[in-house]
Write a structure and sequence with these properties.
64% helix; hydrolase activity (chains A, B); 189 residues; 2 strands; mainly alpha; Hypothetical protein af1432; homodimer
Chain lengths: 189, 189
């Protein structure tokens, strides 16, 4: 129960991305819910050997470390902050503390699932990462640019920082979404 | 994708319950995420025959109808509004529209899962309902009363409107939580 009350704080971690209607910034709790729904809806885009139930569990847990570290936007610091050694070390310490609130073996199981997501090597983690990358693209398209405007992102940067990762786990999905981003970047340039 | 963009609106549906720190009202999107986490953590409280993966899916979907209908708090209108014939009919129409945004068979599958949750007859649905009822109790305990203060709820009303439902799917959990609510109601009376 201490873990579940602590987890509540993820609802106060703000992301750079807004809601689809642009009314306010999205928080990491509701983002995690939205991603779980993405996994359920887009199950057909997953490659062979993907367990959607494991992907859903992974996505429910994936951002909990942000309670301590905050969200580090993909496009911030010219794309250099997200995944930096400093951020990764802080997230590891956060995982230690937060999953440590659970009794073992549950704490160890949850932590292993989070580490699998972070490592992005297994089919489940690769697909989960694709969804984590594509949802902000959909939010930006719906809100008229969102973080692409905030950070002055180009179509090439989107392809390098986001597209490659989405395509790795869900190539057909990225093809479909990229088509829709073309209109935005054409009119923005 | 139309369904996933429409679902984003659940993040703007406000519940009566606040965050654990009392800073603002909780929305139904982040609430749904929190419940999925409850299911993962409290899996050991589920009765025999419960599939936690199905419970998680059910909880991810369970509040989508509130996009059209809004949240109807358990304790509002002296406990009479929630589950009234009028609200149920509106929720049914909302399910028709919202799940209708998905292609079949997926739309029909999601709708069936939502109906199973609403009917609260299968072991999965009974456990999912228990979590949906117990999470606001935990939020109220953390925030110093929350909706119990708002609606002037007594320990007896809590038992009748909430406790019975939690105990149906997770008797040990309700015993543990009720113990903690006793302190609150003693000091409030």
């Amino acid at each position: 129960m201490a873990f579940l009350v602590e987890a509540d704080r993820l609802k106060s971690v703000l992301r750079a991305t807004t809601l689809a209607d642009g009314s306010r910034r999205e928080n990491s709790g509701e983002h995690s819910w939205h991603l779980a729904l993405y996994a359920m809806v887009l199950a057909g885009e997953a490659g062979p050997g993907v367990s959607i139930d494991r992907v859903v569990r992974m996505l429910i847990l994936h951002d909990l470390v942000e309670i301590d570290v905050g969200d580090v936007p993909i496009h911030s610091s010219e794309g250099a902050a997200h995944g930096s050694a400093e951020v990764l070390a802080a997230e590891r310490a956060a995982a230690e503390r937060i999953f440590g609130l659970l009794p073992d073996p549950q704490g160890a199981e949850f932590r292993a699932l989070w580490e699998e997501f972070e490592a992005a090597q297994t089919p489940d983690a690769v697909f989960a990462k694709s969804l984590d990358r594509v949802q902000p693209v959909m939010q930006n398209l719906a809100s008229g640019g969102g973080t692409w405007v905030t950070y002055g992102v180009t179509a090439e940067q989107l392809e390098a920082r986001v597209g490659v990762k989405v395509a790795r786990g869900a190539p057909g999905l990225w093809e479909w979404v990229r088509e829709r981003t073309r209109g935005y970047f054409r009119s923005a340039s």
